[in-house]
Design goal:
135 residues; alpha+beta; two-stranded antiparallel ribbon; 4 helices; 48% helix
């Protein structure tokens, strides 16, 4: 039996595919940055906790904030694309989102990718001499 979160993901992925939008575009971001001439690309993969299940007060607060974002984002980010691409009503999407939220496992993590980059160009060294950053 499928859970609501998986059903939501499959439905959203189908709608994104119909719209010729890549649901996993972020996985190709570094290659696109490199091809655009960006240098010194560093990627960091994080696991963001979702929910108030941590004992540490600060982590509990962070998890609570991420849970609020996810709970409001699930129907909001998907309504337009599912409505337009799959011809669903707003009510159908809302029910799908509510079912997905009820299926959240606990504890739950989400993956996040952070990228740090530099544009190529000239920089001044400490001694005042220009150096090409692309070296």
């Amino acid at each position: 039996m499928e859970n609501g979160l998986f059903t939501f993901y499959k439905t959203f992925a189908r709608a994104m595919s119909n719209a010729n939008l890549d649901l996993n575009a972020i996985t190709k971001a570094c290659e696109e940055l490199k091809s655009a001439g960006i240098i010194n690309i560093r990627e960091k993969f994080l696991r963001m906790l979702i929910g108030e299940w941590m004992e540490d007060r600060e982590l509990k607060k962070i998890g609570s904030l991420f849970e609020a974002v996810v709970n409001s984002a699930i129907p909001d980010i998907s309504v337009r694309v599912i409505d337009e691409e799959l011809d669903w009503s707003s009510r159908e999407v809302t029910v799908l989102g509510a079912t997905a939220r009820q299926s959240f496992p606990s504890p739950m993590y989400s993956h996040c990718t952070l990228s740090q980059v530099k544009k190529p160009g000239k920089v001044l060294e400490a001694g005042g001499r220009e150096e090409d950053m692309a070296k």
